[in-house]
């Protein structure tokens, strides 16, 4: 990189040895003057630590300062950089710059997904990252190795190059890459969303990321399939308990269990009232884990609005914990329980609690092993509840009897806007017709 490593301050030699001279010092000074008058010359150097070895390029505070180049000029500069670093320009990058629309130095997207970026290719990108701000930079599956990842992430951090960064599917970033990413998370003013999926976040990286999250400005963090179960999740939650900027946390496909992991997530909900979306789909929270989450949900008075628990091995027994929590919830608006074996029994357990709940507006029960009996119980809930706006019952075995009950309920309920059902077989369509919402 041209300037990123030249951060030492310029110094000059000190004259302190000439101040407060003693009489002996004065005599020596006179002798030196006599020697100089005779033509003798002396040269002195400052100590090694005071020698200027570089200078720091000052970052401009003017948002328009780096946007003076046209896209054509940036393309030419990128090609020159490639020549300097002895790499071929990426045709996909040139194509995106050629077709891009630049408004005040900002371009919608720099999509490098699947492009192999070695260290020299990353260095060549500096002029692009310096000159433009992108709404989204996609570095997914770019085969970043340690030096390249560190250089590229340092550039993005220094030049505030993007608002949304996806660095998923890069599992060889090494220690320097993780440290650079942590620095980016902590220092960036522009970065609001980070996607880091399909990358194992083991103890070391988890610690780096967690420390950075304590003071970051991120609002969305996506850590799907990051092997977070156990110590990494414990470390992450420890930092997020006091975080006051993060609004969305996506933790799908992490094999989170119903014991220690669910306990940590329950503590997160107990102490963090800023988080608005928590995605836990495709884990193993199960009934015991749902109990821990419900204990944390009771403390949510201003925070969590979306809780996604799809495919978590939750059964009717777990609905007992939810039934005790639903009546006291004040802010939860979206609840996804799809792909769990709730059955008709589970719907009966939460039916009355849903009736008195005043916050849930969207309820997903897709593929929850519900038949007509469960649909009738949900119809009774629709009659009494006037906050619900969307109910998803797709991929359930709801037939004529259940459809008729729902049809009657819709004539009474005035809040529901969407009712999602599977295609009704033609033979049954003759016997029932749902009213338009």
UniProtKB/TrEMBL annotation:
Protein name: Protein phosphatase 1 regulatory subunit 37
UniProt organism field: Betta splendens (Siamese fighting fish)
Family: Belongs to the PPP1R37 family.
SMART domains assigned to the protein according to its UniProt record, in alphabetical order: LRR_RI
Basic and acidic residues biased stretches: 9-51
Keyword vocabulary terms for this entry: Leucine-rich repeat, Repeat
Disordered as annotated region, ranges: 1-62
Record keyword Repeat present: yes
């Amino acid at each position: 990189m041209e300037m990123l490593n030249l951060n030492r301050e310029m110094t000059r030699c000190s004259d302190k040895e000439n101040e407060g001279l003693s009489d002996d010092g004065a005599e020596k000074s006179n002798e030196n003057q006599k020697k100089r008058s005779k033509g003798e010359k002396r040269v002195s150097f400052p100590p090694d630590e005071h020698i200027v070895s570089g200078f720091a390029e000052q970052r401009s505070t003017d948002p328009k300062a780096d946007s003076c180049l046209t896209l054509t000029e940036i393309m030419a500069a990128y090609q020159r950089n490639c020549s300097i670093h002895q790499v071929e320009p990426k045709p996909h990058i040139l194509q995106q710059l050629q077709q891009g629309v630049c408004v005040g130095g900002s371009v919608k997207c720099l999509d490098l997904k699947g492009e192999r970026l070695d260290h020299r290719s990353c260095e060549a990108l500096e002029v692009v990252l310096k000159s433009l701000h992108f709404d989204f930079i996609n570095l997914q599956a770019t085969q970043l190795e340690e030096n390249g990842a560190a250089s590229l992430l340092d550039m993005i951090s220094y030049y505030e190059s993007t608002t949304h960064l996806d660095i998923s599917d890069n599992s060889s970033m090494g220690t320097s890459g993780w440290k650079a990413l942590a620095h980016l998370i902590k220092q960036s003013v522009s970065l609001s969303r980070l996607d880091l999926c399909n990358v194992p976040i083991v103890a070391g990286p988890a610690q780096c990321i967690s420390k950075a999250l304590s003071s970051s400005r991120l609002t969305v963090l996506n850590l799907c399939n990051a092997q977070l179960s156990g110590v990494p999740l414990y470390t992450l939650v420890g930092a997020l308990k006091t975080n006051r900027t993060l609004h969305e946390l996506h933790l799908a496909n992490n094999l989170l269990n119903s014991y220690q992991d669910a306990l940590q997530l329950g503590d997160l909900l107990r102490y963090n009232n800023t988080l608005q979306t928590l995605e836990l789909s495709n884990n193993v929270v199960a009934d015991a884990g749902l109990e821990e989450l419900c204990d944390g949900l009771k403390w949510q008075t201003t925070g969590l609005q979306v809780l996604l628990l799809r495919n978590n091995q939750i059964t009717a027994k777990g609905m007992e914990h939810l039934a005790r929590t639903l009546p006291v919830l004040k802010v939860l608006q979206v609840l996804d329980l799809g792909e769990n074996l709730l059955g008709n029994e589970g719907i009966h357990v939460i039916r009355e609690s849903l009736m008195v709940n005043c916050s849930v507006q969207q309820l997903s029960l897709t593929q929850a092993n519900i038949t007509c009996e469960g649909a009738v119980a949900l119809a009774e809930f629709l009659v009494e509840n006037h906050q619900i706006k969307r109910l998803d019952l797709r991929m359930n075995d709801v037939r004529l009897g259940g459809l008729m009950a729902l049809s009657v309920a819709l004539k009474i309920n005035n809040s529901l806007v969407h009712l999602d059902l599977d295609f009704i077989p033609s033979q049954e369509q003759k016997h029932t017709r749902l009213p338009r919402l």
